[in-house]
Amino acid sequence: MLIDSHCHLDFDEFNPDRDAILARATAAGVDAFLTIGIRVRQFARVLAVAEQYDNVYCTVGTLPHFADEERDVTTAELVAQTAHPKVIGIGEAGLDTFFGNASWDAQIDVFRAHIHAARQTQLPLVIHSVRQDDAMAQILTEESRKGGFPILMHAFSGGPQLAETALSLGAYLSFGGLLTFPENETSRQIAAAAPADRLLVETDAPSLAPVPHQDERNEPALIIHTAQLLADLRHTDLATIGQQTSENFYRLFTKARRSD
Ligand SMILES: [Zn+2]
């Protein structure tokens, strides 16, 4: 049993064969999916997928790439969307000056609006953080002092210092295809050493397919490669990783209901 804690099932890449993809994932042992919002103004399409399938949940948020366009998204607007039973988290939101080119001030404003929504609802904040470890650690520390909120660091690619800060704030770390890329030895060390009750797995499909599929369209069934590597790194087996990460998912995402 595995849960894909971060995928983008609403993306056009999946329009031709969404049913088949979910069926393949189910056959591979994936029994729940969290499909992630990246633009609040286009949230309807994310919600539509979550409403269509029993075991698909979703989050609402603005990826930092779209911070300029969605700088006017308010905390109240995010909170209002979480009234829906299938909306179980906030995000993805965060900081990214590597892949994205939104202005820094807009990124900070939008990220803080999401933090406030997570604090107010106590729903997990799914964080996208790329190459901004110091700023991310500082904001999370400062905001947590004003009142805690559940944190999930998605596709964790930060260094040991950010991992330590995040874990000290109660955060969960999620690992996806990046973990399998040869150059990411630091991530593997962090994944090997993180507490067992703070780990999640994900695909970020259709992006970031794990080795040996890295040039293909990613899909949730491929999570097995990341989960197996995580098991190897932690000297355990796939079943144990599946059980631990699924328990962690349901502990963190309190609105998700186990189907069994
Ligand atoms: Zn994503």
From TrEMBL:
SUPFAM superfamilies recorded for this chain?
Answer: Metallo-dependent hydrolases
Keyword Hydrolase set for record? yes
**By its UniProt entry, which PROSITE patterns does this protein fall under?**
TATD_1
Can you tell which superkingdom this protein's organism belongs to? Bacteria
Q: Which UniProt keywords apply?
A: Hydrolase, Metal-binding
Question: What's the family?
Answer: Belongs to the metallo-dependent hydrolases superfamily. TatD-type hydrolase family.
Its recorded name reads Deoxyribonuclease
What's the source species for this entry? Answer: Devosia yakushimensis
Q: Lineage from the top down?
A: Bacteria, Pseudomonadati, Pseudomonadota, Alphaproteobacteria, Hyphomicrobiales
